[in-house]
Amino acid sequence: MLTFNFSPFPVLQTERVLLRRLTKADGEQMLFLRSDDRVMQYIEREKTTSLHDAEAFIDRINIFGDSNESIMWAIALKDSPQEMIGTICFWRLQPENHRAEVGYVLHPDHWNKGIMYEALLAVIGYGFDSMNLHSIEAHINPGNLASARLLEKAGFIREGYYRENIFFGGRFLDTAAYSLLKN
To answer: I need a labelling partner for 102 at 20 to 30 A (CA). Which of 28, 64, 124, 130 fits?
Structure first.
């Protein structure tokens, strides 16, 4: 079984992107990301409604990271490292199976620019090389075609389709399951 250790916090970089630890200063952007209709369209979670709740979420995320239960990075551009434009994480860690689930969101102003692809590749590399994962999974709303294309571009294969497996907003929704194996 694997043992994860996210201390010191792993800062990752690509050509344009910096993946860093979340701070309270990211509260306003977190509130935006977790309340914007476009960002939340395919995310089956209640929207965040206050800065206090966004900051409390950041605190919880950092506690989970400090206890090695999950890890979430703030996505920033290298030329604006303090401005969070998205998040990417490993959660639902399965150390006994050498597996984790990846999740991500990005500010709409930065969609379709390859930023999330860069971030995803960096996180995949960290997962396989530093965490020693054997596989990474992603679960998405099948209507989120952009996310499906992103995962497939990064090498993920759609392995399953769960019909009406989530009850949210008064209705049952489907989920598409993707995975990537370590080469």
So the answer is: 28
